[in-house]
Amino acid sequence: MMSVLDGPVITADMARELALSQKVCIRPLLRRVHDRHDDTEDVVALPCGSTREAVCPPCAYKARVLRMQQCTAGWHRTDEPEHCPAPPRDDQDEDQADDDLDRRVRSTRRRQDAPDLPRVPQENRTVGRVFATADGREYRPSMFLTLTMPSYGAVTSAGVPADPPNYNYRRQALDALHFARLVDRFWQNLRRAAGYKVQYFGAVEPQRRLVPHLHAALRGAIPRATIREVVAATYLQLWWPSFDRPVYVHRTPVWDGESYVDADTGEVLPTWDQALDRLAADPEAKPVHVMRFGRQVDMAGIIAPSEDADRAVRYLTKYLTKAVADTHTSEGGPDPAAEAHADRLHAELRFLPCSERCANWLRYGIQPDAAGPGLQPGRCASKAHDREHLGLGGRRVLVSRQWSGKRLAEHKADRATVVREALLAAGLVAPETERLAAAVTLSDGSPRFVWTDTRPDARTYARVLLASIAERHRWREQYEAAKAAGPLVDNRPATAPPTDPG
Where is the composition biased (Basic and acidic residues) (predicted)? Predict the structure, then answer.
């Protein structure tokens, strides 16, 4: 009988469909590896690591499961995390207040139309309080919270504007661009009002109307009245130069080697610092944008371990693998009204400034902060302007520093360790993680494995993909056999299955 790896029976498309069903990366990076010890060569598949289901469903699934583990690990802790690293910007929230540039010109007084924040004595803890029942049982509840943005106009049941010409696309676009900053301000205010260092795992997701909202797991229980007070008292003011009226529409400032100048007059555009100085000197200056959360706030108490806790973790990470623009996508195809809604929002986002360094400031006659050559209005490098992201170009997962005491990479390593220990306990040798590593050397100290790029044809792609499927199947059989052979040290819930070894 001919092997599927040897004959031309299996096409690239067939191998791809099989890989999808077996949760194997369908768009791997193929690299040629030369083993200098055996003088052999082979093509190796490296997972693409995409977090988007539309790009690679298997890799997106693994990324989501890893986030589920991270969420579960920190939600119902009973002890304080011992290891609290300073995380990178793309992994965890930095809990920063307004930028120093905003402080330079903004008023330090609270807005008169915003209620005062409740303040209580602060405790140096991150875990929730323990409550006791009449019969002596103890439990430590936590919470699941959802915050939404206000209305920008009436929408239909399908989530599209009922009256598009009168729908406030500009405000929705600005709120989306700065949503993460408003969320940061909320956590700062909540900690002051709750009286302890509230820790959270949050996911920023779009509603069907393409408006961002936040789902968050909170460690510990906070009175619902307090949360509602904090939501009502939280706002964000944007103290920026005005960008209501564009100065350059049909022409663009040019770079003269040192600054951006008017192409016709040669006049140098004011720098970002000069624009802020003018704003600070204006006694009538007002923030160009003020944003708040909407009135709808959903809160639920969660006790773990429980099915409610597992269900909440699954729901919290449900849309992490989807792009913002895919909110309206269904099996029947895109809805024309929804596509038109996304197009109009994208058109508004194209020329709005997303940050102090946004190239769109040139459209309003101001040089961006730290300006350099090559900037063009409407072509900012930030993902927030893309139609795929529709304003949410930053982090989709917001995790506080002391949530689990581990980085995401450490959680991934923990998952691999569980599998390896299970295999070793059953007398099986786990696949060696360094088996093809560039750090492996020969007796003379030179690298044993030499990696080079390759452009395989469809037949090679199918062969390598099938080999990856067979390898995964073999590892899975070994792991299941190890679990059946004896007890497994793995306390994670069913929401977070362990990864394959290797």
Answer: 101-116
Position 266 scores a pLDDT of: 94
Spatial contact of 334 and 54, defined as CB atoms under 8 Å apart: no
Q: Provide the H-helix boundaries in 301-399.
A: 307-316, 336-350
At residue 18, what is the residue type? L
What percent of the chain stands above pLDDT 70?
82
Contact 262, 269 (CB under 8 A): yes
Q: Which residues contact 28 (CB under 8 A, 6 or more apart)?
A: 45, 46, 47, 48, 464, 465, 468
Over range 167-177, report the average pLDDT. Answer: 97
Summarised one tens digit per residue, pLDDT across range 204-217 is 988 889 999 999 99
Phi, psi (5° rounding) for residue 93? Answer: -70, 145
* Tokens of residue 184, six digits: 């940061």
Q: For 221-248, write each residue's pLDDT tens digit.
A: 999 999 999 999 999 999 999 999 999 9
Answer yes or no: is pLDDT of 426 > 60: no
The CA-based diameter of the chain, rounded to the nearest angstrom, is: 86
Q: Are 349 and 392 in contact (CB under 8 A)?
A: no
Which are the contacts of 211, defined by CB distance < 8 A and separation ≥ 6?
Answer: 148, 149, 152, 172, 175, 176
Quick one: CA dihedral 12, 17, 19, 20, positive or negative?
positive
What is the residue extent of each domain of the chain?
Answer: 12-58+409-485, 78-327+335-403
10 Å CB burial of residue 206 (0-12, 13-18, 19+) is: buried
Residue with tokens 């961006």: 368
| Cβ-based neighbour number of residue 406 at 10 Å | 19
Distance CA(317)–CA(306), nearest Å, equals: 17
Edge to edge, what strands does the sheet with 142-147 contain? 297-302, 142-147, 212-218, 200-206, 397-399
Helix (H) or strand (E) holding 177: helix 169-177
